[in-house]
Amino acid sequence: MALRNILTEGEPSLEKRSRPITEFNERLHILLDDMRETLENAGGVGLAAPQVGVLRRAVLVLETNVAEGEEEFIIELINPEIVEVDGEQYGPEGCLSVPGVFGMVKRPERVKVKAQDRYGNFFEIEGEGLTARAFCHEIDHLEGKLFLSLADRLLSPEELASLSEDESETDSESEED
Description:
Blueprint: H1 26-42, E1 46-48, E2 58-63, E3 73-86, E4 89-95, E5 98-107, E6 110-116, E7 122-128, H2 130-142, E8 153-154, H3 157-176
Antiparallel strand pairs: 1-2, 2-3, 3-6, 4-5, 5-8, 6-7
């Protein structure tokens, strides 16, 4: 496994549509393993192949909706396609390719995705909350779209700090219950 460079806003390949993956081989497995290491190192919740300069339809998403005591895990999605959405959420969103910038974005609350695994097997998976947001965000990357095009406004550093404080207080209050 190796760390890959994460491309940042302004790189032309981030604005291009990715091609489907048709060969499920060692080369794909190396890409996915490298993306996993890169994502873990960057501390993000998702990463798409175009962000590391590969215009193929592969994304990783960190599943954060796990039971207490269980570990979060990474979901690999090859040739993902959103097949169902429900509800709505509105909140701050950022991107490893747009470091330090956050905007308010509307996304579905629940998303069902049809995809393939690293061996080409088809499956469906559902995500809620942050996971649903990440599915949408990463699949947008495959279409050459950054979250900035969906944000109705960008957050100032002060607004972001205030939101982080609010979440911390809510987390500590719920831990006490």
